[in-house]
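User: I've been going back and forth on whether these two constructs are worth ordering. Before I decide, could you fold them both?

Assistant: Sure. I'll take them in the order you sent them. The first construct and its structure tokens:
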Amino acid sequence: MDQIKHNHIEINGIKLHVAEIGSEYSPAVVFLHGFPEIWYTWRHQMIAVANAGFRAIAPDYRGYGLSDVPAEPEKTSFFDFVHDTASILDSLGVSKGANM
């Protein structure tokens, strides 16, 4: 699991943790954890997917794992999770097209 890279991406003033493995030029597979889990849930699948030639990306949602907790966590909505995920993919340069 040493080959999984970790970084933080700032979105709307919140630093979100992202675990990633595989070439940035490969098609991406995004792993979204359940509640109350974290990216670590997908570690074995991420390695297998990367070994199959894909880029595996697994963020920690806001308030989970190594991501920041928002100032008012009780106001977090499902829309925030959708926006965060889309913003992470944009920040990582993941294409919106299906090039497979």
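The second construct, handled the same way:
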Amino acid sequence: MKRVELLTKIEESGVIAVVRGASKEQGKRSCEALIQGGIKGIEVTFTLPNAAEVIRELVSENLDSSVVIGAGTVLDVTTARLAIMAGAEFIVSPTFDQATAEVCNLYQIPVLLQSFKSTIR
């Protein structure tokens, strides 16, 4: 049931802001500004240095339960587990990895695959 509740929370957020940055501090400040500005969906990418720490801090400091914080650019099961243990409520991956999907299923965390479609004709 947890997965369904999280998917509903993601849907209700309306917009998911994808946060990247050159440093942990820059990424965290960006996330905080987005939340203060009313954005309810945050995806912290694992291209951000110390992304798991940023997720952990955001989850522990965020008192607004309508904000959903997830992890992006998750390429393998180890990264997925780090994100989940840090408190990520969803995982986004550019590719399908069965072990990653299985660990997300184990913890009832939604795993979403990025889709890249060309609009050039």
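Notes on the second construct follow. The radius of gyration is 14 Å. The first strand starts at residue 16 and ends at 19.
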